[in-house]
Amino acid sequence: MNKDKPSNLDVAENIFEEATAKKTQWRNLLAFWILGLCNNYGYVVMLSAAHDILDIKFSDKDNSTLNTNGTNMTGIRMCNTVSTGAILLADILPSLAIKMIAPFLPFLVHARLATCVLFSAAGFLMVSLSTVEWLALLGVVITSLSSGLGEATLLGYSNQFSKQVISTWSSGTGGAGVIGALSYASLATVLSVENTLLVMLIVPLLQGITFWCVLKHPVHTKISINGVENQEQIIKVPEKSIRDKFKLIPGLLKYMIPLGLVYLFEYFINQGLYELIEFDNIWLTQHEQYRWLQVDYQIGVFISRSSVNVVTINKIWIMSVFQLINVIILLFETLFYYIPNIWIVFALVLWEGLLGGGAYVNTFFRISTEIPKTDRETSLEIATMSDAIGIALAGWLSMPVHNAICKLPQPKRLGS
């Protein structure tokens, strides 16, 4: 009898363990997709909802200066009185602040996620139920803090799972753009803005259920090494000091700078230029053109953020160059109206979204595979601030450019 030959019981146990491991992996992949969706959902919705709340509840604008579409007439161009870049800044600066702080705070993942869930719910409630303007704006800030803390925390925590969760997390954050924009627009057609936001309280609830009930957290078995009997204690021993964490930043710049540039150019287009691109006498009004450009962009982001397991791109700087080319093309379009057909603009905007989403997912995928495991958690947290810095700079730059172009005469479209 061969003693080395595994028994039927051993074979059955191995099959069961493999099946359990596979089931756990799929649960975690799904959980990170939902967490990515929930984390970015509030950020996406607030860009639209906060503007609507402020306009409906607190606006004291002089309607005699507006046309029937609610836009301000500046010369012969139709421009919003306040650039959308101003709303973007209110939605991104708190997120940027927390992303800059989070990597240097203790990594108490359960406490952090509880904070995210509570802040997300509080943000929806504040914006919906606000009776004064500052409370609505505070709701935007609270939601932004939740999103920033959640991204830094969950990307750092992904280090303890299969590297594939980076792909599903990124896909979920991309899905938040499409699902957030479409769900808000759909619900707001049948409900008031206030009630729409109250319905969306299901999102932070789903976030909490997913993190504590769906995600299978790593289990550290108790062992004894040099008298230390708990694996959790052993993990905490080599925790990096703040100085050690700062020393990681120079080595991360090769990832962070290209990603930051892609987002700088991308959001400069979104917040400074979209609104100024107008095609007359087509099936879409100016406001509808703007909304569908945003949806088109979000579709591109969702596709590319879901693509890293199919296509991996290492040279992120190439995407920043292509995104700069998009800025030049669309900037000249706002000045000269030289693109003859809106479908060309839709194609460019889809390409813009593909570049932005591709830069995001490939940057974090590279960090998760190229950085040593001992540095990976902190590195992933630190890198999250790069896209936020790019978005914040885009918000500042887009406002003066938007206002300057608004003062120019509206050109006649080439070929019209």
Automatic annotation (TrEMBL):
<dbReference type="GO" id="GO:0051453">
    <property type="term" value="P:regulation of intracellular pH"/>
</dbReference>
<feature type="transmembrane region" description="Helical">
    <location>
        <begin position="134"/>
        <end position="157"/>
    </location>
</feature>
<keyword id="KW-1133">Transmembrane helix</keyword>
<feature type="transmembrane region" description="Helical">
    <location>
        <begin position="197"/>
        <end position="215"/>
    </location>
</feature>
<feature type="transmembrane region" description="Helical">
    <location>
        <begin position="30"/>
        <end position="54"/>
    </location>
</feature>
<keyword id="KW-0812">Transmembrane</keyword>
<dbReference type="GO" id="GO:0007040">
    <property type="term" value="P:lysosome organization"/>
</dbReference>
<feature type="transmembrane region" description="Helical">
    <location>
        <begin position="343"/>
        <end position="362"/>
    </location>
</feature>
<feature type="transmembrane region" description="Helical">
    <location>
        <begin position="169"/>
        <end position="191"/>
    </location>
</feature>
<keyword id="KW-0472">Membrane</keyword>
<feature type="transmembrane region" description="Helical">
    <location>
        <begin position="74"/>
        <end position="93"/>
    </location>
</feature>
<dbReference type="InterPro" id="IPR036259">
    <property type="entry name" value="MFS_trans_sf"/>
</dbReference>
<dbReference type="InterPro" id="IPR018460">
    <property type="entry name" value="Battenin_disease_Cln3_subgr"/>
</dbReference>
<feature type="transmembrane region" description="Helical">
    <location>
        <begin position="105"/>
        <end position="128"/>
    </location>
</feature>
<dbReference type="GO" id="GO:0005765">
    <property type="term" value="C:lysosomal membrane"/>
</dbReference>
<dbReference type="InterPro" id="IPR003492">
    <property type="entry name" value="Battenin_disease_Cln3"/>
</dbReference>
<protein>
    <recommendedName>
        <fullName>Battenin</fullName>
    </recommendedName>
</protein>
<dbReference type="Pfam" id="PF02487">
    <property type="entry name" value="CLN3"/>
</dbReference>
<feature type="transmembrane region" description="Helical">
    <location>
        <begin position="316"/>
        <end position="336"/>
    </location>
</feature>
<keyword id="KW-0813">Transport</keyword>
<comment type="similarity">
    <text>Belongs to the battenin family.</text>
</comment>
<dbReference type="GO" id="GO:0012505">
    <property type="term" value="C:endomembrane system"/>
</dbReference>
<keyword id="KW-0458">Lysosome</keyword>
